[in-house]
From TrEMBL:
Domain Fumarylacetoacetase-like C-terminal: 2-202
Organism encoding this protein: Sphingobacterium arenae
PANTHER family named in the record: ACYLPYRUVASE, ACYLPYRUVASE FAHD1, MITOCHONDRIAL
GO molecular function ontology, one term from the record: hydrolase activity
Pfam families: FAA_hydrolase (PF01557)
Top-level taxon of the source organism: Bacteria
Annotated SUPFAM superfamilies: FAH (SSF56529)
InterPro entries recorded: Fumarylacetoacetase-like_C, Fumarylacetoacetase_C_sf
Full protein name: Fumarylacetoacetate hydrolase family protein
Length: 203
């Protein structure tokens, strides 16, 4: 499987980082070694001094698809979860200034927290799913899929023009406003609607 992630998919978050609001999806990838499952601890990497949290809804692909048409895009998702895209912001900023790729800032080991995945049928409207992130019992991010610049069907159509989607692939769909730094000792808890779906302590 592969992890396909979307950047700048919420207007307020793009503005938060002084980035232009995109007219096409901004896509990057993480390897499968980035996954952090089962509420395991995240160990602060020694190569960064400014790691940030970014909570994101995650959609699992259930069919192989290339050049997926809009009318069939909804058939390519079977489950939904929540994750954190940990980002080494200092490394990302340095690479952006030089026009270099972001991979070292985004793709390091355990940089993609993932909750259990829940059947799509549990969500009556994929364009109205609320989610949030607590840091030390305080809500720091809250979002809703209705506020995405590019919805999940549009992302499937766009990505599949370039990259063949395969069963088990995960799409991290972007983060709302409110990203910020993590510190050793922090405790994070993620929610879909009002349901706690993951926890992660920073060590």
């Amino acid at each position: 499987m592969k992890i396909i992630a979307v950047g700048r998919n919420y207007i307020d978050h793009a503005k938060e980082l002084n980035n232009p609001v995109p007219d096409k999806p901004v896509i990057f990838m993480k390897p499968d070694t980035a996954l952090l499952k089962d509420n395991k601890d995240f160990y602060y990497p020694e190569f960064s001094n400014d790691v940030h949290y970014e909570v994101e809804l995650v959609f699992r692909i259930c069919n192989e698809g290339k050049h997926v048409s809009p009318k069939f895009a909804h058939k390519y998702v079977d489950a939904i979860g929540l994750g954190i895209d940990f980002t080494a912001r200092d490394i990302q900023s340095m690479h952006k200034e030089k026009g270099l790729p972001w991979e070292l800032a985004k793709s390091f080991d355990h940089s993609a927290v993932i909750s259990p995945l829940y059947p799509k049928e549990e969500f009556p409207d994929l364009q109205n799913i609320a989610f949030s992130l607590k840091k030390n019992d305080e809500i720091v991010q809250s979002g809703n899929t209705k506020d995405m610049i590019f919805d999940i069907d549009s992302l499937i159509v766009f990505i599949s023009k370039y990259i063949t989607l395969r069963k088990g692939d995960l799409i991290y769909t972007g983060t709302p406003v409110g990203v910020g730094p993590i510190a050793i000792g922090d405790q994070f808890e993620g929610f879909i609607q009002d349901n706690s779906v993951f926890s992660c302590q920073i060590k």
